[in-house]
Amino acid sequence: MRSALVVLSLLGGVQGVFLAAALSFRPTNRRANRLLAALLLAMATYLIVGAYHLGGYVSRWPWAFGWTHPLPLLFGPLVYLYARHAADADRPLRAVDVLHAMPAIILVGWSLPVYLLPASEKLALYAQMQARHIPETLVQNLWASWWLKITSGAVYTVATIRVVRRHRRAVEQQYSSLRSVTLDWLVLLGAASAAAWGVVIAAGAAEPLRLVPQGTGDQLVAVVMTAAIFLLGYRGLQQPEIHVIEVPLPTQAPRVAAVDSGPVAVASDERVIERGGERSGERSGERSGERSGERILERSSLTPGTVRALKDRLHQAMEKEQAWRDAELTLGSLAQEIGTTPHKLSELLNTQVGQSFHDYVNGFRVAEGQRRLREPGDAHRAVLTLALDAGFASKSTFNAVFRRQTGMTPSAWRAAHVPPGPPV
């Protein structure tokens, strides 16, 4: 079993090195890919040195003893920073980002006396640890670093999940197909990471009580980390660049005034300032916030005339020209088609239609899918064919969106709404 884990750890480590090299030289999404490459290298080093320990090579080459001790403190920060930069390719690396590495740097400094020991003393210390006669100062170091690693793993898992959820809300305002632009797979990675930490904690508590064999925690880490390297490398190489347009959403529902084309937002450059219960109108730009205890309530940036014109052009593009059939339709491309900016189109959809761009466009696609599912002439056609015709990029996306908007899968909806044919 031990030899199999050594081989598994080495395979995972070598794979991590090759994937890191591939990501480093990938011409797109460079910042995110280099952060992911750094994570894969850290994990690969952890696995290779783990194989070195599992294989009993410490006595032959003691110089590498303890190298991986601080590395787990880099895993969480690197996943988090990768998520931040994969979510927005335009985000620059900042000097403050280095602070995420401070716990690992501090632990290196704390462990420096062990790293600087002569080879003979390292071997003696390793023999003591194998016999569970660990010096008190080292015990304190190990326990403190253990809890630091657990805390780091938990904090950065939560932070990464928050980034991914915020990113999903942002891309729903700008993309009609989320298949390649969401980072939901990082939520799975975060959940798997949390589960792995839980298993390691449980194994660490059970090993001294002899409830599980010695080294169970290390074995589980090797298996989970090898799987994580393959997942990270595969998904990282597939991840496209994502450029997020800052789309300001209204901070409150706008007032509406009746015009012949329906409810529209009030003229844009009005704002209301509340001072101690008194209200007064002012002309202003599109900024909102608090200054000197004043609460500024921002109005819509669309005038009634602009709303009417945009609605007409949007109706032309979506109802008559069927722009929604383009599977890669984005907020920017639709805004260009109707002659406006992404900001104004997003505001129109949010304030006048009450939907995100993603839900609005896919509403047309689902309606087309329902129409085709009811058509007797399409009864023999596969759901995938109907999905692609309706503008969906894949059958899985069609199923997910259709179920979200109707509460049923396309096949179940077809069975419920299409009467059975005459008996043969």
Q: What this model shows, in words?
A:
This protein folds into three domains: 2-238, Rhopdopsin 7-helix transmembrane proteins (Up-down Bundle); 256-298, no CATH class; 304-417, Homeodomain-like (Arc Repressor Mutant, subunit A), CATH 1.10.10.60. The chain is 60% helix and 6% strand. It contains 15 helices and six strands. A hairpin with a 2-residue loop joins strand 3 (270-275) and strand 4. Helix 1 (2-24) runs parallel beside helix 8, helix 7 runs antiparallel to helix 8 and helix 10 (331-338) crosses helix 11 (342-353). The longest helix is centred in the middle third of the chain and has 37 residues, at 136-172. The termini are far apart.
Number of domains: 3
CATH architecture of the largest domain: Up-down Bundle
**What is the succession of H and E elements?**
HHHHHHHHEEEEEEHHHHHHH
Cα gyration radius (Å):
29 Å
Strand content: 5-15%
Helix content: 55-70%
Number of beta strands: 6
Please state the structural category. alpha+beta
How are strands sequenced across the largest beta sheet?
A: 4-3-6-5
Alpha carbon gap, first and last residue: 62 Å
Shape: elongated
CATH topology of the largest domain: Rhopdopsin 7-helix transmembrane proteins
